[in-house]
From TrEMBL:
It holds the Pfam family Methyltransf_12. This is Class I SAM-dependent methyltransferase. One of its GO terms (biological process) is methylation. Residues 57-154 form the Methyltransferase type domain. The keyword Transferase applies. It comes from the Bacteria. InterPro entries: Methyltransf_12, SAM-dependent_MTases_sf.
Length: 241
Protein backbone atom coordinates (compact mmCIF):
# COMPACT_ATOMS: atom_id res chain seq x y z
CA UNK A 1 0.00 0.00 0.00
CA UNK A 2 2.84 2.42 0.78
CA UNK A 3 4.14 2.30 -2.81
CA UNK A 4 0.70 2.83 -4.35
CA UNK A 5 -0.06 5.68 -1.95
CA UNK A 6 3.32 7.29 -2.58
CA UNK A 7 2.73 7.17 -6.34
CA UNK A 8 -0.65 8.84 -5.82
CA UNK A 9 0.83 11.51 -3.55
CA UNK A 10 3.45 12.51 -6.12
CA UNK A 11 0.69 13.71 -8.45
CA UNK A 12 -0.17 16.48 -5.99
CA UNK A 13 2.91 18.62 -6.57
CA UNK A 14 3.04 22.40 -5.86
CA UNK A 15 1.54 23.21 -9.27
CA UNK A 16 -1.47 20.97 -8.79
CA UNK A 17 -1.87 22.04 -5.18
CA UNK A 18 -2.05 25.70 -6.19
CA UNK A 19 -5.07 25.13 -8.46
CA UNK A 20 -6.72 22.44 -6.36
CA UNK A 21 -9.65 24.33 -4.84
CA UNK A 22 -10.75 25.97 -8.08
CA UNK A 23 -10.32 22.86 -10.22
CA UNK A 24 -12.03 20.59 -7.69
CA UNK A 25 -15.17 22.70 -7.74
CA UNK A 26 -15.30 22.46 -11.53
CA UNK A 27 -14.53 18.74 -11.71
CA UNK A 28 -17.05 17.95 -8.97
CA UNK A 29 -20.37 19.70 -9.42
CA UNK A 30 -21.69 19.97 -5.87
CA UNK A 31 -18.27 19.99 -4.15
CA UNK A 32 -19.50 22.08 -1.24
CA UNK A 33 -22.80 20.21 -0.99
CA UNK A 34 -20.95 16.90 -0.76
CA UNK A 35 -18.85 18.19 2.14
CA UNK A 36 -21.86 19.71 3.86
CA UNK A 37 -23.83 16.47 3.62
CA UNK A 38 -20.80 14.51 4.80
CA UNK A 39 -20.67 16.67 7.92
CA UNK A 40 -24.41 16.21 8.44
CA UNK A 41 -24.14 12.43 8.06
CA UNK A 42 -21.34 12.24 10.62
CA UNK A 43 -23.25 14.44 13.06
CA UNK A 44 -26.34 12.28 12.61
CA UNK A 45 -24.31 9.10 13.14
CA UNK A 46 -22.38 10.33 16.19
CA UNK A 47 -25.02 12.51 17.80
CA UNK A 48 -25.29 16.28 17.90
CA UNK A 49 -22.95 17.98 20.36
CA UNK A 50 -21.11 14.84 21.48
CA UNK A 51 -17.31 15.17 21.72
CA UNK A 52 -15.48 13.20 19.03
CA UNK A 53 -12.05 12.79 17.45
CA UNK A 54 -12.25 12.54 13.65
CA UNK A 55 -9.52 11.14 11.39
CA UNK A 56 -9.43 13.01 8.06
CA UNK A 57 -7.42 11.00 5.52
CA UNK A 58 -6.32 13.04 2.50
CA UNK A 59 -6.96 16.33 4.29
CA UNK A 60 -4.67 18.33 2.00
CA UNK A 61 -5.91 21.12 -0.23
CA UNK A 62 -8.54 23.30 1.37
CA UNK A 63 -9.10 21.07 4.40
CA UNK A 64 -12.77 21.36 3.49
CA UNK A 65 -13.85 18.34 5.54
CA UNK A 66 -12.54 19.99 8.71
CA UNK A 67 -13.71 23.51 7.81
CA UNK A 68 -17.28 22.32 7.18
CA UNK A 69 -17.56 19.76 9.97
CA UNK A 70 -15.70 21.91 12.50
CA UNK A 71 -18.22 24.72 12.03
CA UNK A 72 -21.14 22.32 12.58
CA UNK A 73 -19.68 20.55 15.64
CA UNK A 74 -17.55 22.82 17.86
CA UNK A 75 -16.75 19.97 20.30
CA UNK A 76 -15.05 17.81 17.66
CA UNK A 77 -11.27 17.48 17.29
CA UNK A 78 -9.49 16.35 14.14
CA UNK A 79 -6.38 14.55 12.96
CA UNK A 80 -5.48 15.74 9.44
CA UNK A 81 -3.41 13.25 7.44
CA UNK A 82 -1.92 13.72 3.98
CA UNK A 83 1.29 12.48 2.26
CA UNK A 84 1.66 15.58 0.05
CA UNK A 85 3.44 18.45 1.78
CA UNK A 86 2.24 21.14 -0.69
CA UNK A 87 -1.37 19.99 -0.23
CA UNK A 88 -1.03 19.79 3.54
CA UNK A 89 0.44 23.31 3.63
CA UNK A 90 -2.69 24.59 1.88
CA UNK A 91 -4.90 22.86 4.44
CA UNK A 92 -2.93 24.31 7.35
CA UNK A 93 -3.33 27.82 5.94
CA UNK A 94 -7.07 27.33 5.50
CA UNK A 95 -7.51 25.88 8.99
CA UNK A 96 -5.59 28.80 10.47
CA UNK A 97 -7.84 31.20 8.56
CA UNK A 98 -10.94 29.54 10.01
CA UNK A 99 -9.61 29.27 13.55
CA UNK A 100 -9.51 25.48 13.47
CA UNK A 101 -5.79 24.81 13.72
CA UNK A 102 -5.89 24.52 17.52
CA UNK A 103 -8.46 21.73 17.19
CA UNK A 104 -6.43 19.80 14.59
CA UNK A 105 -3.36 17.56 14.79
CA UNK A 106 -1.40 17.71 11.53
CA UNK A 107 0.38 14.60 10.21
CA UNK A 108 2.44 14.48 7.01
CA UNK A 109 2.36 10.81 5.97
CA UNK A 110 0.16 7.76 5.61
CA UNK A 111 -2.35 5.83 7.72
CA UNK A 112 0.30 3.23 8.52
CA UNK A 113 2.33 6.00 10.16
CA UNK A 114 -0.35 6.44 12.83
CA UNK A 115 -0.11 4.21 15.90
CA UNK A 116 -2.27 1.09 15.63
CA UNK A 117 -3.60 1.73 19.13
CA UNK A 118 -5.14 5.02 17.94
CA UNK A 119 -8.91 4.69 18.05
CA UNK A 120 -10.90 7.42 16.34
CA UNK A 121 -14.63 8.04 16.72
CA UNK A 122 -15.08 8.52 12.95
CA UNK A 123 -13.13 9.09 9.76
CA UNK A 124 -13.42 10.60 6.31
CA UNK A 125 -11.78 9.41 3.09
CA UNK A 126 -12.87 11.93 0.47
CA UNK A 127 -11.33 12.10 -3.00
CA UNK A 128 -8.63 9.55 -2.17
CA UNK A 129 -9.57 5.98 -3.07
CA UNK A 130 -9.79 6.48 -6.85
CA UNK A 131 -6.17 7.72 -6.85
CA UNK A 132 -4.93 4.39 -5.43
CA UNK A 133 -4.13 1.98 -8.30
CA UNK A 134 -5.38 -1.59 -7.96
CA UNK A 135 -7.93 -3.29 -5.73
CA UNK A 136 -5.46 -4.81 -3.27
CA UNK A 137 -3.86 -1.47 -2.29
CA UNK A 138 -7.38 -0.06 -1.89
CA UNK A 139 -8.26 -2.96 0.44
CA UNK A 140 -5.09 -2.46 2.45
CA UNK A 141 -5.77 1.26 2.86
CA UNK A 142 -9.33 0.59 4.07
CA UNK A 143 -8.15 -2.16 6.43
CA UNK A 144 -5.51 0.15 7.91
CA UNK A 145 -8.18 2.78 8.38
CA UNK A 146 -10.61 0.31 9.99
CA UNK A 147 -7.90 -0.80 12.41
CA UNK A 148 -7.72 2.76 13.75
CA UNK A 149 -11.47 3.21 14.27
CA UNK A 150 -13.50 2.31 17.31
CA UNK A 151 -16.00 -0.54 16.77
CA UNK A 152 -19.15 0.91 15.23
CA UNK A 153 -17.40 4.14 14.18
CA UNK A 154 -18.66 5.68 10.92
CA UNK A 155 -16.54 6.29 7.83
CA UNK A 156 -17.54 8.75 5.13
CA UNK A 157 -16.09 7.52 1.84
CA UNK A 158 -16.39 9.67 -1.28
CA UNK A 159 -14.82 9.56 -4.72
CA UNK A 160 -15.30 8.35 -8.27
CA UNK A 161 -16.93 4.93 -8.36
CA UNK A 162 -17.26 3.87 -12.01
CA UNK A 163 -14.67 2.84 -14.57
CA UNK A 164 -14.50 5.93 -16.76
CA UNK A 165 -14.73 4.05 -20.07
CA UNK A 166 -17.87 2.25 -18.86
CA UNK A 167 -19.92 5.46 -18.74
CA UNK A 168 -19.32 7.35 -22.02
CA UNK A 169 -22.29 9.67 -21.51
CA UNK A 170 -21.04 10.70 -18.07
CA UNK A 171 -17.58 11.23 -19.55
CA UNK A 172 -19.03 13.44 -22.28
CA UNK A 173 -21.01 15.41 -19.70
CA UNK A 174 -17.83 15.84 -17.66
CA UNK A 175 -16.18 17.37 -20.73
CA UNK A 176 -19.13 19.74 -21.07
CA UNK A 177 -18.67 20.73 -17.43
CA UNK A 178 -15.16 22.00 -18.24
CA UNK A 179 -16.44 23.73 -21.39
CA UNK A 180 -19.13 25.42 -19.30
CA UNK A 181 -16.34 26.98 -17.25
CA UNK A 182 -14.48 28.36 -20.24
CA UNK A 183 -12.12 25.57 -21.29
CA UNK A 184 -11.42 25.26 -25.02
CA UNK A 185 -11.55 22.01 -26.98
CA UNK A 186 -7.85 21.20 -26.59
CA UNK A 187 -7.88 22.07 -22.88
CA UNK A 188 -10.91 19.86 -22.28
CA UNK A 189 -9.23 16.92 -23.99
CA UNK A 190 -6.03 17.50 -21.99
CA UNK A 191 -7.97 17.52 -18.72
CA UNK A 192 -9.86 14.35 -19.61
CA UNK A 193 -6.62 12.69 -20.68
CA UNK A 194 -4.99 13.51 -17.35
CA UNK A 195 -8.02 12.16 -15.47
CA UNK A 196 -8.15 8.93 -17.46
CA UNK A 197 -4.44 8.25 -17.01
CA UNK A 198 -4.17 9.33 -13.39
CA UNK A 199 -6.91 7.49 -11.53
CA UNK A 200 -8.26 3.99 -11.00
CA UNK A 201 -11.72 4.20 -9.43
CA UNK A 202 -13.67 1.18 -8.20
CA UNK A 203 -15.81 0.00 -11.10
CA UNK A 204 -19.21 0.23 -9.40
CA UNK A 205 -21.01 0.97 -6.16
CA UNK A 206 -21.11 -2.81 -5.63
CA UNK A 207 -17.31 -2.89 -5.92
CA UNK A 208 -17.05 -0.17 -3.26
CA UNK A 209 -19.36 -2.17 -0.99
CA UNK A 210 -17.19 -5.27 -1.47
CA UNK A 211 -14.00 -3.37 -0.63
CA UNK A 212 -15.62 -2.01 2.52
CA UNK A 213 -16.91 -5.45 3.54
CA UNK A 214 -13.47 -7.01 3.07
CA UNK A 215 -11.95 -4.25 5.23
CA UNK A 216 -14.39 -4.84 8.09
CA UNK A 217 -17.21 -2.36 7.46
CA UNK A 218 -20.98 -2.75 7.33
CA UNK A 219 -22.82 -2.20 4.02
CA UNK A 220 -22.66 1.47 2.98
CA UNK A 221 -25.50 3.97 2.75
CA UNK A 222 -25.13 6.22 -0.31
CA UNK A 223 -26.16 9.86 0.16
CA UNK A 224 -24.63 11.93 -2.67
CA UNK A 225 -23.95 11.51 -6.40
CA UNK A 226 -22.52 13.74 -9.13
CA UNK A 227 -21.57 12.13 -12.47
CA UNK A 228 -18.82 9.60 -11.59
CA UNK A 229 -18.64 10.77 -7.98
CA UNK A 230 -20.50 9.15 -5.11
CA UNK A 231 -20.43 9.52 -1.32
CA UNK A 232 -21.48 6.94 1.26
CA UNK A 233 -21.23 6.23 4.96
CA UNK A 234 -20.42 2.85 6.51
CA UNK A 235 -19.75 1.77 10.08
CA UNK A 236 -16.83 -0.35 11.21
CA UNK A 237 -18.13 -3.72 12.29
CA UNK A 238 -18.62 -3.83 16.06
CA UNK A 239 -17.26 -7.37 16.26
CA UNK A 240 -13.98 -6.54 14.45
CA UNK A 241 -11.05 -6.45 16.89
Amino acid sequence: MATASADAARKFDPGRAAEYETQSRIALAGYDACHELSACMLAAALGQGAPAHILVVGAGGGGQEIVTTGALEPAWRFTALDPSEPMLDLAVAKLRQHGLLDRTEIHLGYIDDLPVEARFDAATLIGVLHHIPGDQPKRELLRALAARLKPGAPLVLAGNRYAYASRPLLLAAWAERWRMHGAGVDEVQAKLGKILQGADPPHSEAAVATLLKEAGFEPPTWFFASLFWGACIARRLSSKS
